[in-house]
Specification:
With 420 residues, this protein is of the alpha+beta class. Helix content is 26%, strand content 24%.
Length: 420
Amino acid sequence: MSEQIQVTANEDEALERRRASEEGAITDEAIALLRQRIGHPVPHRKAPFEWAAVDVLRNYARGIGDINPFYRDLGHAQSSRWQTLTAHPTFMLYMGVSEETSMSPELLATGRGDPLKGVHAFYAAEEMQWFSPIRAGDRLAIRRGLAAVDDKRSRMGKRAVHEHDESVFRNELGELVGLRRSTLIRVERGKARGEKKYTQLEVPHRYTEDQMREIDADYSREYIRGREPRYWESVNIGDESVPLVRGPYTTTAYICYAEATGPRNDYHRAHSDAYRYRSRHPRAFPLNESGFPDTIARVHWDKEMARRAGLPETYDFGGERVAWMSNVVTNWMGDDAFLRRLRVEMRAFCYVGDTVWLTARVVDKVVEGDDHAVRLELEAVNQRDETIALGTATVLLPSERRPDKPTVPSTVPEGLSPFL
């Protein structure tokens, strides 16, 4: 019996050594290679959605839990000033056929693949700007690349790299639809585990019956402005939205989001497709505790993988929280308004079992040319009273003086992105 235990222990140690060897490291050389890529457009992987089909747009709203009929009911949308179904603003993240078809000589000189392969990536921030709605039937083209690389120290993983990526989206008419700037924080998994900053949290959270009744009551109070116009003149600084609740967060919620957003990264692959990708990028499919490879994206549903990243539990996908933050804004602004800008910063994790309350507060209102703009501050707070996300938004509202004037931006600022 003792010999069998010793053999098992030796096998476990060998597996752990194999798994540790797959974890990457942050080096000066890798950072230098990344920085050589700044400003050079890169071919974009095939987008989950090439076309904004009605069913796709409706399913996206369902997948993020948005019950606003403006994004789910074709008849409702057709009776609005837009006269057709338009995409939930954050759906732009999952569209875009690449304008670049090959790598430039400058990019090829930096090598293929990720210089920081095997180094964990946390989604830290997203900034999106819109200049035209995505209408049912639209096809978007994308031009993207690395905009900046910062070598920093993180709270949980010691040395960290902040990667800032930019993307520009145009529709089939060549019109500028939007711009995104996303930030990833890269940390070494072994060092993140050693910090043990989050591992003492008691998660998943346990709720009493009374607490669940309170959460359900908050769900029942959700307010959607809808067809009733919210005019710029009626808004006052200090106005607050009705809180929007999300949770308790479940793996099922993640599955709904994954269904709605399609293969949004290179790591959601199965069988032959997974094998072909893994053969070229083995560190994207590290060994699990049973000794066979599986995607690094399983950190969102595999507790053991989450713990290897220094976390006590699986957690949400960053794009979900960006959608939630935009949801509280679109509920508040009504069908006639236009979300011009959104910025979301992740401040803590949303673990399985967490409940989040999202609010928006008016902090400024201005007239810029023909645009009647309102600026909002956003906050997401969980049941532990932790702020897990902060954000800002700019909304263009209709005016009582010219109620039929389009609410899309009247001008496009210069110098928005090197990829324009």
